[in-house]
Amino acid sequence: GEEELAVVGVHLHAGETVADEGVRLEELTGVFEIGKLFLGRGHVVAGDFNASHPGQRIEVGKLRAKSRERIAGQGGQVPRDVVRRMLEHGYVDSHALHHAAEEFGTSFTTANPGMRVDYIFVTPDLAPRVKGCEVFKQEIGRFASDHFPVVAELG
Questions:
Q1: Could you say which DSSP state residue 112 is in?
Q2: Which residues have CB under 8 Å from 37's CB, separation 6+?
Q3: What is the spatial distance between Cα 109 and Cα 16, in angstroms, rounded to a whole number?
Q4: Helices (H), the chain
C-alpha cells in the first residue's frame, strides 16, 4: 500500500565559529518544533545544517582559506553541538548507519571538500529502511551548488 512520508528541508546559518553554532542551535529549536507535527510518524529532516558531526575528523588543510582562518581564530575548535543535539533528540544520521566515522564523506565545498555539513536524518523507526546514504561526488554535482549532494535510499 501507499505510505506517507514527511520530509523537512533545512538550511541553517552558515559559518564555522562558536557564535555561528549558537545561532544554529537557536534555529534547531524551530526544527524540533516542526518535528513535533509528525509525532508518531516517521519523518526525515535533511539539508544544509552547516554543522560538523561530533565523530568526524575534519581535514582543516583541505578547507577553503576562509574556513581555515575562522577555525584557527578560535584555537582550532570546530563546533559540533548542532549535530550532537540532533542525535540526542533521537534522530539518526543516515550516513553514519553505513559508514564508520573515519569513512564519513565530505560534502563542503565542492572545490575544497574537507567537511560534511549536509545530512539526512531519519526517525529511529525509519533507520532500518535506510539502505544507503552517500555524498554524491560526481562531477555533475559541482554544478548544483557549492555543496555536494547527499543521497539516501530508503526501502
A1: S
A2: 6
A3: 13
A4: 18-36, 65-73, 81-88, 94-98
Positions of the chain with pLDDT under 50: none
Identify which of 24, 104, 9 has the alpha carbon closest to the alpha carbon of residue 56: 104
Burial (CB count within 10 angstroms: exposed 0-12, middle 13-18, buried 19+), residue 106:
buried
CA distance 129 to 137: 23
Furthest CA-CA distance within the chain:
54
> In this structure, are residues 100 and 132 in contact, taking their beta carbons and an 8 Å threshold?
no
pLDDT, one tens digit per residue, over 3-48 is 789 999 999 999 989 999 999 999 999 999 999 999 889 999 999 9
Answer whether 0.90 is exceeded by the pTM. yes
